[in-house]
Amino acid sequence: MKVPFLPCKIVLAMGLSAVLFASMSPLASAQDQPTTDENSTVTYPASFFEQYQPYSVNDMLIRIPGINLALGGGGPGNSGGNRRGLGAGGDQVLINGRRIAGKGNEGNQQLTRIPASEVEYIEIIRGTSGDLDVRGGTQVVNVVLKEAESNTSYTYELNVDHYHDGKYQLGGKFSATGQNGGFSYFLSAEREPRWEFRDGFETSYNLDGSVNETIDRDFGGDAWPTALAANLGYEFNERNVANLNLQFTENDFLSYADRIITDSRVDPASVRIERDETPTEDGTWEIGGDYMHVFADGSRWRTLFIVNEAENDAVRDRLQIDGSSITKDLFLSNYIRTRERIMRSSYVFDLNEAQSLEAGVERAQTILDTSLQLGLLRSDPAVNNGGPRFGNLAPITDANGTVEEMRYEYFTIHNWQLNDRMSLETTFLFEDSRISQEGDVSKSRDFTFFRPKLDYRFDITPSIQFRATAEKEVIQLSFSDFTASIDGSDDEQNAFEGNSDLRQTQAWRYQANLEYRLPNDAGVLSGNFFLNDFDDLIDNVDISTGDQVLGARGNIGSGRQYGVNLNSSIRLLMFNQPDMLFTAGLRLEEPSLTDPILNIERERSMRGGGSNYSFGFRHDIPTRNNMNWGFNYRREFYNEFRVWDVDKIERYLKVGSIFSWVEVQAWGDLVYRFEARDSRDRCRVRTRYINGNIATGNIDEIEDSCSDAGPVLAIKIRGTF
User: Fold this and answer.
1) Computed over its alpha carbons, how large is the radius of gyration of the chain?
2) Whole-number Å distance between alpha carbons of 300 and 473
3) Does residue 199 carry a pLDDT above 90?
4) What is the mean pLDDT of residues 91-104?
5) What is the pLDDT of residues 527-580, one digit of tens each?
6) Closest CA to 629 of 662, 671, 658, 665
7) Confidence band of 3 (pLDDT split at 50, 70, 90)
8) What is the pLDDT of residues 142-154, one digit of tens each?
9) 597-629: buried (b, 16+ CB within 10 Å) or exposed (e) per residue?
């Protein structure tokens, strides 16, 4: 693997220096210190955070070194948002030792809603156990709340965002947390602005370097997403507990794009004006719940369920503007609805003092409904007869489809505490699924997969832990690839085809992780080495017919991804500044596959997210109105960040991003927070081919475009009562 060594040396040097000085310096004047028990679980009592006067659980967590590793979940290369069903993994946040059954409304969604005054202590669980409701994460965060007969706490936040085009947007959040006997609840409502005005310019060049076309492009989008959430729990007695979780979001918005296009291929150059108007209706809802019964012998039976739905309906009109004359020449309607119905039930019992076993079954139904209509303006008025369904233009594409997967998982999880320093967790999972499709294509296929996993952990010392995992994973398909859909990043490509023959990508994932927690809570150093072997990778493939060049998503064979992920989070004790926290991270990866069109080895298609480095700084000043300030910076590098399509290749330039803030507790005993976000630059070079694909065709033009959304300034005011 070709690796630039300078970032590696910088991160390693910082880590080694921190180890040297941290081992010599005590943490200054901390109150109740965190402790590490024989199971390598680190416990932070609520009194540890009192000097900072935090308002929420999130305010407490951000003061813990290495918390980003604990909240990171499964580690590099995992499927993340493509998680199938509920599974044993997923969100790595527990509330009172219990997992919140949800996908859009999981435990980490509660971190800004729960007031810090409700917290008894916070655990960073680094081991494995049959008592945990989630498995497979590098670490698990458990937030334990105080017990009270009756209490209620409220938090609120008001914010104003200022954008570079002079626009101001208001937003706010409100939450209530409380308990009454065995009943507990978290309620929240928020309405946040999502305004964006993006200024861009594109120049298209001929192969000889002469200018072909220029486009002055402005994009705007005005959204006001609203989210309501409720997490309700009831403890009938010490053996029976039930929880119900509800979430509703609505985000209807209007976006537009204005383009001034100058065509230099004619003399004199011609200018035309285009405008896109895309009203969108977007909304989701989710209901999740669980019930747990503890038997007299300590064994447990637990059932979780989720029912959710997400709906998006977008209509794009492209208008040609000539003075007072406006002509619509494109209509594109794209409707997507996704539904999930999942139930998971399992029984956990102890085989002996050192071993436990969990056995269960999960049933998951996923349904995707799509509808796409494309209408174009033709010179013959007689064919522009599509009616409102096609924007009163000529019907070109009318694609409809339903894709459904019915899946069953049968699993056993064996947890074995080999000795007081080693543990081994073994998972055996058998999956049986059927994918059926109706609409333009009718087809049904059956799949079976065996998915084992090993998770070994060795506590070399209470502070140093080694972890090794090997896992077979099946990555969730994107059902939108089965049906015709659109590419929103390309103004000139109206739609591309679906592929009803897609198979799930399978992966063997291997990881080795070494973590060192420095003495006196001075910081965390972590190194993760990973190797992922893929089969049936999905990428763009050529399905052209005759003279028509067509692309779709398809299985292209095997591939590999390997690399290293280094992280450090250090208190600056070497400068006698325990309230200064410096973080640094470096990720290097080498992904490769065989291109199905060019027949060469290349990286996987990606717009970003591969190799990157980051660093951040946070300074708490409790003696000055609990002031704190800091920044975070991240930049991608090394990987090519290209997307290979059938008739075009896109290269995305690497840019950095920075976020900074200042926070102070002042008038009215409120927290005032000032934030600044950068311009979020986006740059892309696109090479288009004609008379064939990227292997057989000729270069038609090269498009060089950049845009930025300008800096965003925000003020937020938070309080509790």
Assistant:
1) 27
2) 27
3) yes
4) 75
5) 999 999 999 999 989 888 877 788 888 999 999 999 999 999 999 988 889 899
6) 662
7) very low
8) 888 887 767 888 8
9) beeeebbbbeeeebbbbbbbbbebeeeeebbbb
Q: What pLDDT, on a 0 to 100 scale, did the predictor assign at position 376?
A: 92
**Burial class of residue 700 in the structure, from the number of CB atoms within 10 Å of its CB (0-12 exposed, 13-18 middle, 19+ buried):** middle
Query: Across the chain, which distance is largest between two alpha carbons, in Å?
Result: 89
Q: What are the start-end ranges of the E strands in 522-624?
A: 523-542, 551-572, 577-594, 601-602, 612-621
Query: pLDDT tier at 8 (50, 70, 90 boundaries)?
Result: very low
Quote the CA–CA distance of 510 and 91 in Å, as a whole number. 20
Helix then strand then coil, % of the chain, to nearest 5: 10, 60, 30
d(CA 620, CA 578): 9
User: Using an 8 Å Cβ cutoff, are 541 and 647 in contact?
Assistant: no
Determine the residue type at 7: P
pLDDT tens digit string along 679-700? 888 999 999 999 889 999 999 9
Q: What is the mean pLDDT of the chain?
A: 86
Residue 206 sits at φ, ψ, to 5 deg, of -75, 170
Specify the amino acid at residue 356: S
Measured distance CA(354)–CA(675) in Å, rounded: 50
CA pseudo-torsion sign 489, 492, 494, 498: negative
Cβ contacts of 447-453, under 8 Å, gap ≥ 24: 447/503, 447/504, 449/474, 449/504, 449/506, 451/427, 452/426, 452/427, 452/428, 453/136, 453/425, 453/426, 453/427, 453/429
Q: Which residue has the tokens 């064979």?
A: 557
Residue by residue, DSSP assigns 622-644 as TTTTTEEEEEEEEEE-SS--EEE
Candidates 113, 86, 89; CA nearest to 290 is 86
Q: Where are the beta strands (DSSP E) in 505-550?
A: 506-517, 523-542
Query: What residues have CB less than 8 Å from 647, skipping those under 6 apart?
Result: 549, 551, 688, 689, 690, 692, 693, 694, 697
Q: Residue 189 class from Cβ within 10 Å (0-12 exposed, 13-18 middle, 19+ buried)?
A: middle
Nearest alpha-carbon partner for 719 in 156, 57, 49? 156
Q: Retrieve residue 91's tokens.
A: 């969100």
**The length of the chain, given as a count of residues:** 721
What digits encode the pLDDT tens for the residues 366-404? 999 999 999 999 988 888 888 999 999 999 888 888 999
Residues 439, 400: Cα–Cα separation, whole Å = 6
Taking the C-alpha atoms of residue 594 and residue 647, their distance in angstroms, rounded to an integer, is 17
Instruction: Name the burial class of residue 339, with classes exposed (0-12), middle (13-18) and buried (19+) by CB atoms within 10 angstroms of its CB.
Output: middle
pLDDT at 241: 93
Mean per-residue pLDDT, 233-240? 92
3-state secondary structure 402-453: EEEEEEEEEEEEEEEECCCCEEEEEEEEEEEEEEEEEECCCEEEEEEEEEEE
Least confident of 72-81, 248-257, 476-485, 552-561: 72-81
**DSSP of 194-241, one letter per residue?**
EEEEEEEEEEEE-TTS-EEEEEEEEEEEEE--EEEEEEEEEEEETTEE
Place of tokens 């000055």: 624
Contact 179, 151 (CB under 8 A): yes
From CA 564, how far away is CA 571, in angstroms rounded? 24
Question: What pLDDT score was predicted for residue 152?
Answer: 86
Which residues pair with residue 438 across a beta bridge? Answer: 402
Instruction: Note the Cα 581 to chain centre separation in Å.
Output: 25
In a 13 Å sphere around the CA of 387, the CA atoms on its Cβ side amount to 2
Q: What is the pLDDT of residues 342-372, one digit of tens each?
A: 999 999 999 999 999 999 999 999 999 999 9
